[in-house]
């Protein structure tokens, strides 16, 4: 009977240790998740700022340079409509490059907490191996 009591205490100690390790592991995974999400949110904000900057750039460019560029080209080409078209195409290409750059920073993969997912999968494998051992 004394032997059964010792086994019970040993089993309780193992369960308690497993619970402590599981709690500690969950705490660490949550910390990793928070850190990774915070980093991903910063990337998201960077992407949004780039898109906003591209819009501001496009508008400012249209307002400040269109008239001067069109006037200069119109003199060289002797055609104001052709000059306006050339200037508009160049400014649109610049705008498009900036929008595509900003959109690339907003990809859905940017928001996925990949390190946390990988870590949780590794933890799951370790726990499964412990159970089978």
Folded structure, characterized:
The structure is a single chain. This protein has 133 residues and is mostly helical. The chain has one domain (2-120). The chain is built from 4 helices and no strands. It has helices at 2-77, 80-104, 108-111, 114-132. The longest helix is centred in the first third of the chain and has 76 residues, at 2-77. The two termini are 28 Å apart. The model has no long low-confidence stretch (mean pLDDT 84).
Q: How can the largest sheet be summarized? A: none
Q: Which series of helices and strands comes N to C? A: HHHH
- Taken from the alpha-carbon principal axes, the silhouette is rod-shaped
Radius of gyration: 31 Å
Q: In angstroms, what separates the terminal alpha carbons?
A: 28 Å
Estimated share of beta-strand residues? under 5%
Number of domains as seen in the coordinates: 1
Structural class: mainly alpha
Oligomer: single chain
The helix fraction, in percent, is over 70%
Number of strands: 0
- Determine the mean pLDDT: 84
With helices defined by DSSP (H or I, 4 residues minimum), what is the helix count? 4
Low-confidence stretches: none
